[in-house]
Amino acid sequence: MEISALTRSVVKRNHAVISPDGYINSRVPGWDNCTVNVIINEQMGAHLCQTLITLNEISVLTGATLHSQLFFYVVEGRCTATVGGETNTLEKGQFVYIPIAKEYKVDKPEPGTQLLTFHKVYEKLDGYDVPPVIFGDAANIEGPTYLGDAALRLQVLLPDTLAFDMAVNIFTYDPGGHLPFVETHIMEHGLIYLQGQGVYMLDKDWYPIKKGDSIWMAPYCQQWFTAMGKEPAVYIYYKNVNRFPTTV
Ligand SMILES: NC(=O)N[C@@H](O)C(=O)O
After folding, report:
1. CA distances from 144 to 7, 26, 28, 137, 150 (A)
2. How far is Cα 207 from Cα 74, in angstroms, rounded to an integer?
3. What share of the chain is helix, strand, coil (3-state, %, to 5)?
4. CB of 223 closer than 6 A to ligand 1?
5. What CA–CA distance (Å, rounded) separates 2 from 58?
6. How far apart are CA 81 and CA 138, in angstroms?
7. pTM (2 d.p.)
8. Closest C-alpha residue for ligand 1 atom 6
9. ipTM of the shown complex
């Protein structure tokens, strides 16, 4: 019997673990007939927003990006996305990056389709154009070993050019694989586990983590992870990148 008074979710000054056992649904204007869980947001101290959307056959998402760019990733299922007049079917593992000043529509979903979104206010860099719309497929993106450790593979989904101020990567750890050192860095992360389990150390606290769990790590939140279990642990994560680290 589940003890309703207990949760694995934790929200702290510089990190949060959000497990599905604490989800409450939100209603978002323009995102009709769907279930939205706002998992990470500025209200908790983050500089990004991360949501998980569950669609049914009559769900339709419409909107426009004004100040914030938007990244949709298909966690489960299939749908159709139209951005800037280009329409594509998106299957599991496929995504669309929507820069600022674009209208978008997501519809014709397979019932039960789950979409992950990352939102970040875009910081324009002088001399660089706003990035284009990008439709992509994680299955077509190489996952070279991370820092020479064959147990770790990192797929970088978006072009790493200075026009982009955000990155979205997929990190795969074989069972027993672990980050080579405790990271302490300025970049912020929002992530969700697509597969597997393990233990995440965040700011000296230790959290058992599994598929479906999300984590927010503020800038300089010390972080380390090791994968456990019989299958690789896989998470997709957001990272702010490529901007001057302070006011010039
Ligand atoms: N936590 C974590 O995955 N961090 C790194 O991979 C990184 O890209 O900062």
Report:
1. 36, 38, 38, 16, 8
2. 26
3. 5, 55, 40
4. yes
5. 33
6. 16
7. 0.97
8. 171
9. 0.97
Q: How much distance in Å is there from the Cα of 95 to the middle of ligand 1?
A: 20
CB neighbour list of residue 3: distance below 8 Å, 6 or more residues apart: none
| Nearest alpha carbon to residue 169 among 240, 69, 238 | 238
Cβ atoms of 101 and 80 closer than 8 Å: no
Atom of ligand 1 nearest to the CA of 154: 6
The amino acid at 39 = I
Question: Does the beta carbon of 187 lie inside 6 Å of ligand 1?
Answer: yes
Tens digit of pLDDT for each residue in 179-223? 999 999 999 999 999 999 999 999 999 999 999 999 999 999 999
Pairing of strands 86-91, 78-83: antiparallel
- Indicate if ligand 1 lies below 6 Å from the C-beta of 183: yes
Dump pLDDT digits (tens) for 107-150: 999 999 999 999 999 999 999 999 999 999 999 999 999 989 99
* Residue nearest atom 3 of ligand 1, based on CA coordinates: 171
